[in-house]
Each structure stands twice: as C-alpha cells, then as structure tokens.
C-alpha cells in the first residue's frame, strides 16, 4: 500500500496529464461525429482482427471433430448412393410401378487404434466389433483405397489383415481394361505392393490405375488402390508388377467397414454348385 502511495506521489503530474487527456478524448468523441466514427471503425478493425484470429484457432482445435463428422457424412452418403444404384423398377401390366431395393453393400465408420506397417505380416486394430454389427471377412477401406480385411472380432474391437501382409490376396484389375490379377505384398516397401497372375495379353503402362476387381464377396468393384509403378515382361509373361499405393499405410486413421449384404446368398449358391 505504501508503495502505491509512493508511486502516485512520484508520478502525480503524469497521472493527472493522462487522466485529463482521457477526459478530452471522451468529450471529443462524444461531441464530434467524425472522430466518433473513426474511433468506432478503428475499434471494429482491431476487435474484428482479434475475433478472426480466435476463430481460426477454434477452427483448428475443432478440426478433428469436423473431420469425424465429414467421414460419417461420407459414409451415410455412400449408403444412400448404394441404395439408389440398387433400385430396380418392376412394371406390372404396364400400369402399376413398384420399387424394390436390392442394396448390396453397407458402410460403417471405424477408427484404427493400432497400426502396424513395418512387419512382414501386419495387423491393424479397429474400435468396432460385434456390438456394432462387425463380423469376420469384411473389407476395410478409406477415401484413398483398400486397407485390408477383418480377421477376428470381439464385442467392441476387430483385427484387420492389412494389405501389407503375406496372407493378403485381393482381386484387382486395371481401370482401363478388364484384365484381372491378385494383389499381394513382397514385404519390402510399405508404399508398394505387387500384382501376380496378370495375363500376358494385358496391356500395362506406367501410371495405369489399379482398382478392386469385384470378383470377390468382400470388396465392391472400383475401389482405388494405386498406380503401376514398375513392371517386367519376360518370356511372354509378367515377372513383376509394382503398384504405388494411394494410401500412406503409415498414416491411416479413420476408415470404413464394407459389409456385403448378399454375401451369404452368393457363397451358399456357389458352394451348392460345387457340390453337385
């Protein structure tokens, strides 16, 4: 308290000057519209800049939740698109038109909570399980392409055989033609996988896009995978075909689980045909 009194006594003339200046500014702004408008505009400029910066910081902090909402919305739109593409009109006596839905795929949002990509047989873990309708042998994808196939499931978690796994074998084809092959991984570069069983008639060029072939009950046709990075053609056959993945498998997080709603029907029919 004594120091405050000492400070006031020491700088009393300066403090008086500041106080009078403040009073003068108040009277000036109150009685002169020009000065008042300038002051308001300056204050709005300063506060607007501060609010803008605070808003930018808030948007950055909310980026994670916004991304989650976008992924959920994207999944919902995929489900709606799948329903729309599977609508088949049936005409009865050319008078009554009915619509029957034959939705084939259903998508569920999930998150990778454990990601391996440096081993020979890499396994991922998702935060969804049987309580969320997840079962074995479902495909896992994201916006850039294929991630893997679900192997084991518990109540709230699931493990995934990554495409970076010696047991992973996925039916693929070239986007610009109908030649099919099998996607495998040689265990070397986690950004590069390989295609085997590609017929020699296939015309391959560097940069060609590789997509899922749709000849399995796991993945829909047309899911992106990567582009042709390198290939060797000797003795009238392809010896090696390298594919640069669209996904950076070391930095994957939010994914979608693909469920084929007609899978059991297809497998049952194929098994019945084999046994005949």
Instruction: Give the overall form.
Output: elongated
Give the topology string: H per helix, E per strand: HHHHEEEEEEEEEEEEEEH
Rg value: 32 Å
Helix fraction by DSSP (H/I, runs of at least 4): 25-40%
Structure overview:
The structure is a single chain. With 276 residues, the chain is of the alpha+beta class. Helix content is 34%, strand content 34%. The protein has 5 helices and 14 strands. It has helices at residues 2-10, 12-31, 33-61, 63-85, 263-275, and strands at residues 87-92, 96-101, 105-114, 121-126, 139-142, 145-153, 158-165, 170-174, 180-184, 192-196, 209-212, 224-234, 237-245, 254-260. A hairpin with a 4-residue loop joins strand 6 (145-153) and strand 7. The longest helix has 29 residues, at 33-61.
Task: Tell me briefly what this model is.
This protein has helices at 2-10, 12-31, 33-61, 63-85, 263-275, and strands at residues 87-92, 96-101, 105-114, 121-126, 139-142, 145-153, 158-165, 170-174, 180-184, 192-196, 209-212, 224-234, 237-245, 254-260.
């Amino acid at each position: 308290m004594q120091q405050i009194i000492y400070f006031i006594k020491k700088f009393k003339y300066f403090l008086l000057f500041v106080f009078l200046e403040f009073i003068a500014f108040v009277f000036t702004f109150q009685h002169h519209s020009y000065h008042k408008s300038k002051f308001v505009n300056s204050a709005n400029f300063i506060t607007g800049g501060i609010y803008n910066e605070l808003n930018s910081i808030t948007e950055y902090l909310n980026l994670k939740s916004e991304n989650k909402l976008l992924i959920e919305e994207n999944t919902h739109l995929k489900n709606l698109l799948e329903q729309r593409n599977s609508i088949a009109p049936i005409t009865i006596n050319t008078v009554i038109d009915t619509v029957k839905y034959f939705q084939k795929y259903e998508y569920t949002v999930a998150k990778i909570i454990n990601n391996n990509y440096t081993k020979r047989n890499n396994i991922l873990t998702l935060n969804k399980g049987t309580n969320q309708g997840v079962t074995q042998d479902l495909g896992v994808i994201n916006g850039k392409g294929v991630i893997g196939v679900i192997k084991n499931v518990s109540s709230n978690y699931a493990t995934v055989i990554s495409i970076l796994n010696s047991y992973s074998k996925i039916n693929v084809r070239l986007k610009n033609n109908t030649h099919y092959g099998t996607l495998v991984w040689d265990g070397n570069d986690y950004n590069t996988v390989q295609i085997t069983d590609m017929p020699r008639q296939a015309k391959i060029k560097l940069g060609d896009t590789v997509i899922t072939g749709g000849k399995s009950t796991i993945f829909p046709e047309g899911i992106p995978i990567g582009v042709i990075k390198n290939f060797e053609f000797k003795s009238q056959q392809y010896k090696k075909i390298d594919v640069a993945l669209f996904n950076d498998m070391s930095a994957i997080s939010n994914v979608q689980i693909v469920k084929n709603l007609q899978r059991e029907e297809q497998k049952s029919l194929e098994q019945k045909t084999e046994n005949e």
